[in-house]
Amino acid sequence: MTCCGYVSVSPMSTSAKAFAGRVAVITGAGSGIGRALTYQLAASGAALAISDHNDAQLAVTAQHARFLGATVLANHLDVTDRAAMLSYAEDVLTQFGAAHLVINNAGVAHLGDVLGMQFSDIDRVMHTNFDGVVNGTMAFLPHLIASGDGHLVNISSLFGLLPVPSQSAYVASKFAVRGFTESLRIEMLAAKLPVKVTCVHPGGVNTEIARSGTRNAGALSDGSDPRGQKFLRMPPEKAAGIILRAASRGRPRVLVGGDARAAYLLSSLSRTGWQRLAAHSFGHMSASRSGANSFAD
Asked: pTM here?
């Protein structure tokens, strides 16, 4: 089935039917992984509360989710606005009476070395990627507990496993998401509260986050970007299926793609060992780029 160029994936292959009759909340649902998650959960019988800052893209997602048979509440939402997030959580409870699954997915990227960044560049990434996750978690956590069988899914990145140059703001935000999420999971287990917590580390998924991200003035384009086109191989539909299958099984960590699994293995190297390897590799890449001005296609 297609809609606006999107090919939906059968929920039977993702175990998303485990969420039938549940209320799922998804931020960043206007495109990419968020849209794919919405469609698969809609096809599986979940009721949906979806949000995004892009109203036009959100409307497309909501329309197709309703076509798939879902009851949908679609809201414009800036995840960095704490008061708006708290109000949104109350709206969801008023509409549906419960929240069972919350997926904090909204995110942005910025490319460039620290020496060329502005404070505002770092603030924008941290506010969206980390504060947005904190806001969504704290707004909905009491409702997840009250549901008696809640599940929180926070989207980190392979860069929440392994640092790379030219992505320091993004790396910092995703490491923060990982630390926050894993600590919260321990708290839920220790208190024996009925909320599963999952941290997701997508690798190169073909979404808009890299293409729409900001960059330092004078930063090299796509070819030198580790999140560039050559690395964005996995369709968001496949990523969403992996995430929902793992979430339905209560997995604490989800590695999405071979590159994410490789990053996890590399993270077991000594920190200084990885840093030297990365510096050498990216230094060689930058030198090649300067000489050839582009990667070969």
From this structure: 0.85
